[in-house]
Design brief:
491 residues; transmembrane helix; membrane; mainly alpha; globular; 21 helices
Length: 491
């Protein structure tokens, strides 16, 4: 039956109207992956030399045992961002005499067909054969290889489970990302414990007790079973649909947004769209990770105050940039419905402004701990927060009227360039350059404080005149709405 499923997917692929474009994308992606895989192979072959140069005074085996767990922790983070869920169109099989276990088994097994599962084997096996095998024997070497494979399988199914749960409740993904971030910070920032020591505790003992390999093997088997049971319990559309319906409340039940009327309802619906779909959700999660962006610059004395303008704009407005550059492509699948609905485009734009205001406000609050580097840093963040709400939001919505490329929300975010065009390139120029065009003249005159005041005043003026800009954007939209709709209809 598995071969039948595979045959059906091949036929679906070749009969698709998008086959030519899909093949071209897959060929390009295949070349990129092969190049990346070549780098991984070279890295694995010379891993012993690399570790020897990085830790010249430490035993290679001890260092190696200490980095394995750290690698798999970061690999899990990468899987959550980049690894795609295996899919199968279940609907045609629901009315056929096909066993549920067969369908679920196919989905579970195809999850192993990922390049992420090859990387740890390619990276670690050469070191194991060159260092572990001669020093500790075949038993220890085999136990190490099996442990690496088992931990890779465990990570594979854990990432699949988290992402599937996140499809029903977007907060699951955010919580998982926060937990991984806290675990990492606990070691490398707060020094509460040592991940390297925990890794060596297991793999160091594995050198003399190969039977400990049963622990990662058992973890992999348990995670596979959990994933299998979850898939089996959510196979039918009726069950999946009912859970989705109960997981999200209607917009009118969100007190913060319901007071804004139709614009609040539209903003609430867009929040649901973001949390329910992979690519739009990635714009939000990546924004959370970029809250650490300031640590790159504020910890280095070589960077002057001018760079804080960019960093402040980037951290408080990253969602506007990431999500806004594809406006209105997020609504491409139902854009025709919006055109003929009774929704006023003024309310539609106000909903966008409200969404950006909420997320940017949260982002600004998350950057407040940077007060550690001085109150002036928080002041600059607040100034750029006002700039984002006033100027950048208006710029993003202006370029949205010139974006004619659709986005399929059902597709993943990794290596997905759907919807990317010249509009995104043009959008980046005013977003990055305009604040410096206001600030730098005063900076060169030796009056940086007046430059910051000019940035703040410009942002406030744009916020105060928001209704004026909405009317201008609405008039511009009506001259281009049919061209946008035509572009969104193209596959």
């Amino acid at each position: 039956m598995i071969s039948t499923f595979f045959s059906h997917e091949l036929k679906s692929f070749w009969r698709s109207s998008n086959t030519g474009k899909t093949i071209a994308v897959k060929v390009i992606m295949g070349i990129l992956i092969l190049i990346l895989l070549l780098y991984v192979v070279v890295f694995g072959i010379f891993l012993d030399m690399i570790l020897g140069k990085m830790f010249p005074k430490e035993n290679l085996t001890v260092v190696f045992c200490g980095i394995i767990l750290v690698y798999f922790l970061f690999e899990l983070l990468m899987r959550l961002q980049l690894q795609e869920l295996p899919t199968l169109k279940v609907q045609p099989y629901l009315h056929l005499p096909v066993k549920r276990n067969t369908v679920v088994g196919y989905l579970a097994l195809t999850a192993l067909l990922s390049f992420f599962n090859l990387w740890p084997i390619i990276i670690f096996t050469p070191f194991i054969l060159k260092v572990i095998l001669p020093a500790h024997g075949a038993g220890a070497a085999l136990a190490f290889i099996l442990s690496v494979i088992a931990l890779s399988v465990f990570n594979n199914y854990l990432a699949m489970y988290i992402k599937r749960k996140a499809n029903l409740n977007g907060w699951v993904f955010l919580i998982a990302g926060a937990v991984l971030t806290l675990i990492t910070c606990g070691d490398y920032v707060w020094h509460l414990y040592s991940l390297k020591a925990a890794s060596y505790l297991f793999f160091g003992n594995l050198l003399t007790r190969p039977y400990l390999v049963l622990i990662p093997v058992l973890l992999a088997a348990v995670m596979y079973y959990v994933n299998f049971v979850y898939l089996k319990g959510n196979l039918y559309l009726e069950e999946l649909g009912s859970r989705k319906a109960s997981a999200y409340k209607s917009s009118t039940e969100i007190p913060l947004l319901s007071r804004y009327g139709r614009a609040g309802d539209l903003a609430a619906n867009e929040i649901k769209l973001i949390l329910r779909n992979k690519r739009s959700r990635s714009a939000l999660t990546m924004g959370l990770f970029f809250m650490f962006y300031g640590l790159i610059f504020y910890t280095q004395a070589i960077y002057g105050e001018s760079i804080k303008v960019f960093v402040g704009m980037f951290m408080t407005g990253i969602f506007i940039i990431n999500y806004g550059q594809f406006m209105f492509s997020w609504q491409a699948s139902h854009f025709d419905g919006l055109l003929v609905s009774k929704i006023s485009f003024t309310d539609f734009l106000k909903g966008k402004y409200l969404l950006f205001t909420i997320v940017s406000t949260v982002a600004f609050l998350l950057t407040v701990p940077y007060v550690y580097f001085g109150w002036r840093v928080v002041m600059i963040h607040f100034i750029m927060y006002l700039w984002n709400l006033g100027v950048n939001t208006t710029i993003v919505l202006f370029f949205a009227n010139r974006n004619y490329k659709r986005i399929d929300l059902s597709k993943g975010a990794s290596f997905n360039w759907e919807g990317v065009g010249a509009t995104q390139l043009l959008l980046s120029l005013p977003l990055m350059l305009l604040p410096y065009l206001v600030y730098l003249p005063f900076k060169f005159l030796g009056q940086p404080n007046i430059g910051f005041a000019a940035l703040a005043l410009t942002g406030i003026v744009f916020i105060a005149t928001r209704n004026f800009w909405i009317k201008k954007l609405e008039a511009d939209f009506y001259t281009k709405r049919f061209k946008i709709a035509e572009g969104f209809r193209k596959q």
